[in-house]
Amino acid sequence: MTTPHQKELLPGTRRALLHRIAVAQSEGRAPSLVAAVVRGGKTVWAGARTSVEGHAPDEHVQYRIGSITKTFTAVLVLRLRDEGALDLADPLEKHLPGTGVGDVTVAELLSHSGGLAAETPGPWWERTPGSLRPGLADVLGERPLLHPAGRRFHYSNPGYALLGALVEKLRGASWEEVLRRDVLVPLGLRRTTVRAEAPHAGGWAVHPWADVMLPEPLEDLGVMAPAGQLWSTAADLARFAAFLAEGDEQVLSTESLREMRTSAAPVEAADVTSGYAYCLGMEIRHQHGRSLVGHTGSLPGFLACLTIDVADDVSAVVLANCTSGPAPFTVAADLVRIVAEAEPRIPAPWRPLREADPAVLELVGQWYWGTSAFVLRLRADGLVSLEPLSGNGRRSRFRPAEDGTWVGLEGYYAGELLKPVRRSDGSLSHLDLGSFVFTRQPYDEKAPVPGGVDPEGWRGIG
User: Fold this and answer.
1) CA 67, CA 299: separation in Å to the nearest integer?
2) What is the model's pTM?
């Protein structure tokens, strides 16, 4: 199946995308599979395959998206943080007392590092009515904590039920109502709903050893809804992907979304090897040499993936209506790769800054930390970047602070202060970066290098 969106990509790219989802649907034995690709903030391709003759779904047919719901819930929590209603370091007890796990922080719940159990006690929550678990105590059980908080990444569905309850407590409205008002309506996600709305796909289990199917139950998850309840479409998730990459000030700022896309949970050896890390309601995975951020989802009868390559400005959505079969992340990552390699991103034209502060211009250029050479550059976005000239070493971007210092944004220098230090006559002496002294010459004897500089200066061997 093709759509009008496809005219925005080259014919060869469109055929490669269609071929990839056709192979996924066929080899994965999915009753149906629908996908979309986003670039430049809009859908540039959508396609689908189905086992029903002449009845392929389009990007407006609803599928259940499972744990991609967690990313929506995380956006609601970050909104509360940005409004000052909570701090991510707050213990849950401060805002939602009486859960029995109140020492776990909001950030630990968002990043699955609070030590909570992965699943609820009792029968399989994804395949039974939410009425069996009417309250938080029913999803936490008698042994809700399996690990010390903050020590390890341990995926927890009940943790996101707690975050949904936190949203309800602070907003004074149901999670569903807050989600619709604060995210779905502003972003125009009209086909993303808590309960299925026609047209929607049915959920199926495909027999592992025979080409036959069994319908899966479609249960309302109750208080577990913030962990995996939502239904959505490829078109809606494409718009959501564009938001997660670029931000929308009426919902959540670009800076907060960048924070959501940053690893926030302790990483174990197996995760390092596989290139996996969990952020605040989003996952980082590495595939084909690319860093991809988003989330996967599954519920009985459905598989889903939304993934974003921020650097290449390509996102992909994959939805299927089967319990197991195609690997949605692998398919989505391949769709991203196909577009990024076949039609590389064309950078925006270089343009000079409209104006530059002379005091900032004085900082740019070559600096030395001991004998290691670095360069400080002023960027078009108003940030400065410190990079090693050799290609090896620590690097970071820095944002300006009101007092004339600069705050590190990533890596070793994240949160560290870069301070221009001036002499009594106002001339620039050196840079102080977290106590490291950067000078214009290697071990400049005119600068206050810790430990001093040998007065005899540089010399040869003999």
Assistant:
1) 8
2) 0.90
Cis before 123 (ω within 30):
no
Residue 7 above 80 pLDDT? no
Report yes or no: 35 and 238 within 8 Å, Cβ to Cβ.
no
Q: CA-CA distances (angstroms) from residue 278 to 72, 272, 396?
A: 15, 11, 21
Residue pair 365/352 in contact (Cβ under 8 Å)? The answer is no
How far, in Å, CA of 49 to CA of 56, rounded? 6
Among candidate residues 272, 340, 274, the one with its CA nearest the CA of residue 309: 340
DSSP state for residue 144 in the 8-state scheme = -
What SS3 class is residue 275?
Answer: coil
DSSP state letters, 169-214: HHHTS-HHHHHIIIIIHHHT-TT-BSS--SSBPPPEEEPTTSS-EE
Question: Which pLDDT tens digit goes with each residue over 60-96?
Answer: 999 999 999 999 999 999 999 999 999 999 999 999 9
What is the per-residue burial (b if ≥16 Cβ within 10 Å, else e) of 440-461? eeebbeebeeeeebeeeeeeee
The 3-state secondary structure of 382-405, one letter per residue: CCEEEEECCCCCCCEEEEECCCCC
Q: How far apart are CA 118 and CA 99, in angstroms?
A: 17
Q: Is the pLDDT of residue 144 over 60?
A: yes
Q: Is 195 left (phi over 0), alpha (psi -120 to 50) or beta?
A: beta
Q: Which two tokens stand for residue 348?
A: 């925006």
Indicate whether 305 pLDDT > 90: yes
Q: How far is CA 419 from the centre of its chain?
A: 31
Q: Give the burial class of 320: count Cβ atoms within 10 A of its Cβ; 0-12 exposed, 13-18 middle, 19 or more buried.
A: buried
Who contacts 153 (Cβ-Cβ below 8 Å, separation ≥6)?
A: 111, 112, 113, 265, 266, 267, 268, 271, 278
The token pair at 272 is: 């390092």
Q: Measure the CA–CA gap between 159 and 334, rounded to whole angstroms.
A: 31
CA distance 135 to 137: 5
With 0-12 CB in 10 A as exposed, 13-18 as middle and 19+ as buried, what is 209? exposed
Contact partners, residue 114, CB within 8 Å, separation at least 6? 101, 104, 105, 108, 145, 149, 150, 156, 159
